[in-house]
Design a protein that fits this description.
The structure is a homodimer. By secondary structure, chain A is of the alpha/beta class. Chain A is built from 13 helices and 22 strands. In chain A, strands 1, 11, 12, 15, 18, 19, 20, 21 and 22 form a nine-stranded mixed β-sheet that branches. In chain A, strands 2, 3, 4, 5, 6, 7, 8, 9 and 10 form a nine-stranded parallel β-sheet that branches. The longest helix of chain A is centred in the middle third of the chain and has 23 residues. Chain A is elongated. Chain A starts with a helix and ends with a strand. Chains A and B meet through α6, β11 and α13 of A and α6, β11 and α13 of B.
Chain lengths: ~375, ~375
C-alpha cells in the first residue's frame, strides 16, 4: 500500500501491465489481419508510453495537432499523420515538420489544398489524405459527394509537393452505439461508403488510393476489417467507462484510474465527496441507466484497484469536487482522508487534464503538456 | 488586427477593460452594502490578475485547493480561505500554510475537526468555518441538522489551534435557475437557512459566528445581501455563456473568448469546424432552447470581438474539434484559415484548460498551472 500512502491529491494511476496487454492484443489482431497499424497517440500523449509501442514494432503514428507532431518528432518518430484538417495558420510549423518527417496531412477543401500546395511548393512534399465524412457528421467531404471529392483530389494532383495517398475517415458514430453487432454494422457501413468514394474517384482515373479508418470500438470488436489499408485506434491503450459500457472492453481492461482523496461522507444520502472534479476528470460522461456518470468507483488494493463497486458512480462534478453515489453497505469501507479510485468516463480528456501518470510501480510519466 | 494575425492556434483572449469593469461593479456593490468581499480566485488563477484586485483594495481571498493557496501565498496574499472541505492527506502543506498566512479552512465532520485539531495543536492556529449545505446538495452539514452542527462546532471549540469563525455555504443551486427573481429567491432562502443554523448554535451558547455566502449569480443580481458577513463570488470577473443565458450578465460583460482557427466549412449543413475542442473549452455547456451549447460565436473586430452572431453556437466538441452551427448568411463572413472567437459556456473550466491568457493589448498572462 506504499503507493497509496504517498498520494495526497488527485493522481492519475496507470496500470502498465493492463496497457501493454491492450496494446499486444490490438497489435496481434492487426498483424493477423495484415493491416497497417498507425495508432493514435492523442490518448496517451507521452513519449515514454510511445516507447512501449516502438518496442512492440510500431513505427507509424497518428496525432491530432501540429504541437503533438512536433513533440513526437522530437522523440524520433518519423512517420506521422496529423489526423485533423490542416490548420492553415500553422504553415511555418507544417513546413518545418515536412522537412523532418514523413508527414501526412488531411484536407477537405480545394482552398486548403491550394494554400498547402503553394506554401509547400519548394519542400520535399507531404502525403495528403482527403478527409471523408462516412456518416459521423463532424467533418470531411461527404462520402457520396462525388463531384466534390473529385475536385479536391484533382486539386491535390496539381501540386508537385502534395502526394495524394488516399481517403481517411473517423467513424465517430461507432461511439454512439453499443454492442458488437451495432458497432460492427456501423463500421462496415462506413467502410462500404469509403470504398464507394474510392470507386467514384477511380472512375476518373484517380487510382491506387488507400483507405484509412479506425476507431477503438470497431478495431477492438470487429473480426473483419473489410477493404481498408490502415487503422488508427487510440483510446484502446487505456479504454475507459464509455468503452466499457458500450461493450467494447471489460472493466478490468481499463488501465487508468484517478486516485481521489475522500473529503466528506453523507450517509443520509449514501454519497461521498472526493477531491477530484471537472478539472481532473473532465465533464465528459457515460450514461448509466440514462443518468450521466462521470466515472465508476473502485477501492484501492495492494495490486492497484479492485473491480468497480456495484451501483457506485460519480454523479456530479464541480471544479474540484466529485460527488459519488454508492450503496449504503459500501459506505463503511470508505473513510474521510482515505482514497477511492475513479475509472474515468473518457480517458483521453482525463489524461489531457492531469498531464502526468503515476504507474503502480511508482514511476512518474509526463505527457506533452 | 495585428493581435489576430499572430494567433495560429486556440488562444484565450482576455479583454482587460471588461474584467476590470466587472470587478469595479462588484466591489462598489459590496462597499455600498458594507459587506466583506473575499473574491474567489479559482476563476482566474493568476497572480497577475490578482494584482488588479489588490490595487482595487482587496486583501482577503478565497481559493479552492491547497495548491492554489500556496501559489497566492507566495505572491503575498496573507488572508486566504480554502473553500473546499479540508483534505486531510495534505496536512504537511496545511501546517506550513498556517504559519505563513491567516488561513481559513472548511470542516463538516467531527472526524476532520479532530484530525486538524491534533495535527495543528502546536501551530499558530487556523480559522475554521463549518461548511453548511443550505440546499445545493453537494457537500456540508445540513442547515437543519441542528444536532450535527452542534457536534461539529463543539468539537472545534475543544482544540486550541482551531478558532471557530462561522458558517459557510455555497448556494450552488442559484446556478440552476434563471432570472433575477428566481435567483434572488433561491439566494434569500439559503441566507434564511444559514441564519436558522446560526440561531440553533447560539441556543447552545455558540455565539458571534459569522456567515459567509456568495456566488456570482446572487452577488451580481440581488439588491440586498441579507444577514451575512462575507461574500465570495469568483466567476463575475469574466462571466460566461452560462451566466449570460441565466440572465446574470450581458453578453458584452463576458471578458474572455477563445480565438479558434477555422479549418472547414460545411455550407450544406450551415456549419463550420474550428480548431478548438474539449481540451480547450471543456465539455461544460449551457442550454440554448434545450440544446447543449458549448459556447457562443463572435467575429474578431479591431477592438476585440463583436456581439455573438445570432443563432450561432458550438453544437459539438471532440478532443480538438469544435463544430459550430450558424445562420447561412453568416457563413460568408468566415473563411478557412480565418478565426472566430468563442465565448465559453463556463469560463472557469476554460481558463483551467488553457492556462494562459492573451490580452487584447498582446500581453501574455499565465495561471497557476
Amino acid at each position: 500500500m506504499d503507493l497509496f500512502s504517498k498520494i495526497i491529491k488527485p493522481t492519475l494511476l496507470l496500470d502498465r501491465d493492463k496497457a501493454v496487454r491492450n496494446l499486444d492484443r490490438m497489435l496481434s489482431k492487426a498483424d493477423t489481419q495484415k493491416i497497417r497499424f498507425r495508432p493514435h497517440f492523442k490518448t496517451h500523449q507521452s513519449t515514454e508510453i510511445g516507447e512501449w509501442f516502438r518496442s512492440a514494432g510500431v513505427n507509424a503514428i497518428t496525432v491530432s495537432s501540429v504541437e503533438m507532431a512536433q513533440y513526437f518528432a522530437a522523440a524520433g518518430w518519423d512517420d506521422i499523420t496529423i489526423a485533423f484538417p490542416a490548420n492553415l495558420r500553422q504553415m511555418d510549423e507544417i513546413r518545418t515538420l515536412s522537412r523532418q518527417v514523413k508527414l501526412s496531412l488531411l484536407v477537405e477543401s480545394v482552398e486548403a489544398v491550394e494554400k498547402l500546395g503553394n506554401e509547400l511548393a519548394a519542400e520535399p512534399g507531404v502525403d495528403i489524405w482527403i478527409k471523408v465524412d462516412a456518416g459521423a457528421g463532424r467533418t470531411g467531404v461527404g462520402w457520396d459527394a462525388a463531384a466534390e471529392l473529385k475536385q479536391v483530389a484533382e486539386a491535390v494532383e496539381r501540386f508537385s509537393g502534395l502526394r495524394l495517398r488516399g481517403l481517411l475517415t473517423h467513424a465517430g458514430h461507432t461511439y454512439k452505439v453499443r454492442g458488437k453487432t451495432e458497432i460492427c454494422r456501423t463500421y462496415h457501413e462506413s467502410v462500404d461508403r469509403m470504398n464507394a468514394a474510392r470507386r467514384s474517384l477511380a472512375d476518373h482515373g484517380l487510382v491506387n488510393l488507400e483507405i484509412s479508418v479506425g476507431d477503438t470500438p470497431a478495431s477492438t470488436l470487429c473480426d473483419d476489417p473489410g477493404e481498408v489499408d490502415e487503422i488508427r485506434p487510440g483510446n484502446f491503450i487505456f479504454y475507459d467507462v464509455q468503452q466499457y459500457l458500450a461493450g467494447v472492453c471489460r472493466a478490468e481492461d481499463i488501465a487508468v484510474a484517478l486516485a481521489c482523496p475522500v473529503v466528506a461522507k453523507h450517509p443520509e444520502r449514501s454519497e461521498i465527496v472526493v477531491y477530484g472534479g471537472a478539472i481532473h476528470l473532465s465533464k465528459d460522461y457515460a450514461l448509466v441507466d440514462g443518468v450521466p456518470a462521470y466515472g465508476l468507483v473502485c477501492l484501492p488494493e495492494n495490486t492497484g484497484w479492485g473491480a468497480p463497486l456495484p451501483g457506485a458512480f460519480v454523479r456530479g462534478l464541480s471544479q474540484e469536487h466529485g460527488v459519488i453515489r454508492l450503496r449504503p453497505d459500501d459506505l463503511d469501507k470508505i473513510q474521510i482522508g482515505g482514497l477511492v479510485c475513479v475509472l474515468p468516463a473518457h480517458s483521453c480528456l482525463t489524461v489531457q487534464l492531469m498531464r502526468s501518470y503515476l504507474t503502480l510501480e511508482g514511476q512518474r510519466i509526463h505527457t506533452l503538456n
